[in-house]
Each structure stands twice: as C-alpha cells, then as structure tokens.
Design brief:
The protein is α+β, with helices and mostly antiparallel strands. The chain has four domains: about 80 residues, FAD/NAD(P)-binding domain; about 100 residues, no CATH class; about 60 residues, no CATH class; about 60 residues, no CATH class. Helix content is about 30%, strand content about 15%. It contains nine helices and 13 strands. The strands form four sheets. It has a four-stranded mixed β-sheet, covered by helices on one side. Strands 4, 5, 6 and 7 form a four-stranded antiparallel β-sheet that branches. The protein has a three-stranded antiparallel β-sheet with strand order 9-10-11, with helices on one face. It is globular. The termini are far apart.
C-alpha cells in the first residue's frame, strides 16, 4: 500500500521533531520495494515500512525463483509484463547484477481450451508440432498427449530470483534516498538484546536470534557426515542432527523454545572443511607462482569474515602482498597451504 503524505514545512518539522515524507509505502515485499524505488527515483522523500524483518519468509516475495511469462489468456496482462521486463532490465543495469534469467516459454493444452488459445494468441507464441517438441530440451516434453496444442515463445519466459529481486529494489530505493524501516520482533530478536550463542559440549551447537523467520530461533548443529558436493542428500543429509539439537534445546532452553515437534524449517549447509578447520589463503605456488591466489576451506565459520578475506585475496592478487592484513595484525602464516606438508592435520 502506498499513500501520499502531506509534507509540512522544514521549520515546522524541525520544531515538532517530525520526519516528513512525500510517500509512505507499507509493506516491503516485491510490490512495496518496487514502489519505494520508483518514488525515490523521482526525487520523492520515500519511507518503506515493513512489519517484520526485511527479506522475511512469511509473505509471498521470498525464495529462489519466480516465473515471468507473457502467455496470459487475459489480454490486459502482456503489456504489463513487457513493461515489467523493461523495468527489470533498468534495475539490473542500475544495480550491476542480474536477477532475471531469460528462457523460452512453452504453453501446452487441449485444442478446445479457450484459455490456452487466448494465451498463445496474446503472447505471439509459435505453434510447434509433435516432432519439433520432442526434439527440444532433450525430449523432456515428449509425453504431451497427441492432438494437444504446443506453442513456444522463444523470449517469452524467464526465471526471477525472488529474494535477490526484493533486496535489489530495496537497495536501489535506499540509494535513491528512501528510508527503509523493518519491524522489530520481541524476545528472541537481536534487536531485543537476545544473544548469539554457542555451546561447546556434546553436541556442539550455535545459534542466532530471530531474523529471517520472525518469532523463530535458528539453532545449528556444528557437524555432520561427509558429503559429495555434486550428489548431496538434500532431504536427510544431516544425519541425526535435528534430534541432537532437539535434545540440547530441551535440556538448555526448557519451556522457552518448543522442540517436541521437530524443527519448523530444516536447512542443511555444506561445510568445505580443512583438517584443522583453518582457512586456506595463499599463493598457489609451483608453476603458477604468485599469479594464482587460493581462498578455500572456510570450514563453516568463514562467512562473517568475508569482507576481510575478500580484501586480502584482492591485495595478494593485485599487489603480491596483503598490506591490510598486516596493518590489522592478521597473521596469514596460519593459512598457508604448506602447513599440510609433512603434517596432514595442519596447524
């Protein structure tokens, strides 16, 4: 929801301690974030309000993918899709990264389906026969029933990364001068003073306050079975991690966090481990000398240090040394590849 806010004079605002905005947008999902960006890009003083935390999972704007397609039965939608495509491209150009991956759009259905025929007509899709369809995309749709209509719009589809899209428009809105204010969840939230924590017993767990799922707390089991990055078991790859975490919760946080029914969300995360759990930040050496720099093996605890590691890697690659690390007292000798020579366990 967007509403125009009557702005008082600057003197009156200062005297009353008020903040005045030209546009107030309520709801920071994709629609609200785009509205705030559009208003800010026109020079308006925009305020974007969100009940929960930004990029939360409680609405309709989160996740890895959404479809964009121009095959609509109702003729008033394709012009809006075409406008949206242009504005997606403009936002991508402004932000410098891509959230929309173009793809063909395939529309199929029985020949007497009026909605299908209208969608094909409105999109300008080209009808394809059974042989043509069977030869596309590795034959993935060769099971379409005989006699059905199949039409392809070569540039009519695409995939949008939903969460990245929302983040992109929020960032662009702020860049344009908008103010973004998320809500504050109580008790388990960092804003309320709830701590990050770690427990070094058995099991070793660590946790973060409520953030991406308001009202819920994230507790992680620091461990798991070996896995093949190219053949992970996404459903049960964590072994008995959930039950071990549940037992820890029942012992350490009784009557505060409910664990009897199992986790609300279970998400495995892959660790790229070194034997000593220390990073690898070093020149590759050998025939490559100092021309190749390696950053790897962050062992499940590297994300927080991303800006520092990124700066160090860039300086090593460009300058042959990491001055920032030295100035900050970071001793890179702990991260050398050679530490495994003669000692497979490293440090």
């Amino acid at each position: 929801m967007a509403a125009a806010a009557a702005a008082a004079s600057d003197d009156a605002a200062a005297a009353g301690g008020r903040f005045d905005f030209d546009v107030i947008v309520v709801g920071a999902g994709i629609m609200g974030s785009c509205a705030a960006h559009a208003a800010a890009s026109r020079g308006a003083r925009a305020l974007l309000l969100e009940r929960f935390d930004l990029l939360h999972h409680l609405g309709s704007s989160h996740g890895a993918s959404r479809t964009i397609r121009d095959a609509y039965a109702k003729a008033h939608y394709p012009p809006m899709v075409r406008l949206a495509r242009r504005l997606w491209a403009d936002a991508e150009a402004e932000s410098g990264y891509r959230v929309l991956t173009p793809a063909p759009q395939l529309t199929v259905g029985p020949p007497g389906d009026a909605s299908l025929l209208a969608a094909v007509g409105n999109s300008g899709a080209r009808r394809v026969d059974e042989d043509d369809l069977a030869g596309r995309w590795g034959g993935a749709f060769r099971g379409v029933p005989d006699g059905w209509v199949a039409a392809v719009s070569e540039l009519g589809g695409g995939v949008l990364n939903a969460t990245k899209s929302v983040a992109m428009f929020q960032a662009l809105a702020v860049k344009g001068g908008a103010v973004v204010k998320p809500g504050r969840e109580r008790e388990l939230a960092a804003e309320a003073g709830f701590p990050t924590f770690s427990s070094h017993g058995d099991p070793h767990v660590y946790g973060t306050p409520s953030l991406e799922l308001p009202g819920l707390i994230k507790i992680n089991y620091d461990g798991g079975p070996p896995c093949d990055p190219d053949g992970r078991d996404w459903a049960g790859g964590g072994g008995d991690a959930a039950s071990r975490v549940a037992r820890w919760i029942e012992e350490f946080m009784p009557d505060h966090v409910e664990a009897a029914g199992g986790p609300v969300v279970r998400q495995p995360c892959m660790y790229s481990m070194t034997p000593d759990k220390d990073f690898v930040i070093d020149f590759l050496g050998g025939e490559f000398g100092d021309d190749v720099v390696v950053g790897a093996g962050f062992s499940g605890h590297g994300f927080k240090m991303g800006p520092a590691v990124g700066r160090i890697l860039a300086e090593m690659a460009m300058d042959g040394e990491a001055r920032t690390a030295a100035e900050a007292g970071v001793e890179l000798r702990h991260f050398r590849i050679s530490r495994f020579e003669g000692n497979a366990m490293g440090n």
